[in-house]
């Protein structure tokens, strides 16, 4: 997955499996996940949005097949969220309700899924939303701390926590999250994401004025 071309190749394999009539549910949610990864790494804005839209489509297909399993709901909600980010928060307020619905369903079915992934997404939603639209740094922190309980070694949770702590002027707590992230070793399947986030953590510690204060 560190290679965008390889990610697209994997997507093609899932599509092939679907056409062969293999496990359709698994094919759909894995295609939704692949589209998220591809969209998150596409340099072109139009291609990025198109990937997330396909991720939404595949996620809905998975949910239609297995509404009581978490995978489809989770990757559907993730793609909704990333599509909203690509469009801009204020242009995407209509997506907040379906994102929350998808993630609340994952919480109901298996809160530990993707190392507390639903709480991680909800924490980011509350962080990104303006106050008039229901945003809350306190709710963001609450969900991210819950996510950390399920996935203490999830790099993205640590990065999101650092952002929320900084927004609450909790500088030392934010520093601790970033330093933990820098010292992490990850499972092979998460290595690409962890390396990217470690580079972001280094940049934050070097550039954010809050960390340069004595």
Describe the structure.
With 214 residues, the protein is mainly alpha-helical. 77% of the residues lie in helices and 0% in strands. It is built from 11 helices and no strands. It has helices at 4-19, 24-41, 45-65, 70-87, 96-110, 113-128, 137-150, 155-167, 171-182, 191-207, 209-212. Helix 2 (24-41) packs antiparallel against helix 3 and helix 2 (24-41) runs parallel beside helix 4. It is globular and about 60 Å long.
Keywords:
214 residues, mainly alpha, globular
Topology readout:
Elements: H1 4-19, H2 24-41, H3 45-65, H4 70-87, H5 96-110, H6 113-128, H7 137-150, H8 155-167, H9 171-182, H10 191-207, H11 209-212
Helix pairs in contact: 1-2, 2-3, 2-4, 3-4, 4-5, 4-6, 5-6, 6-7, 6-8, 7-8, 8-9, 9-10
Model regions low in confidence, pLDDT < 50 over at least 5 residues: none
Biggest β-sheet description: none
* Shape call: globular
Task: State Rg.
Answer: 17 Å
Class derived from helix and strand content: mainly alpha
Separation, N- and C-terminal Cα atoms? 40 Å
Mean pLDDT across residues: 92
Approximately how much helix is present in the residues? over 70%
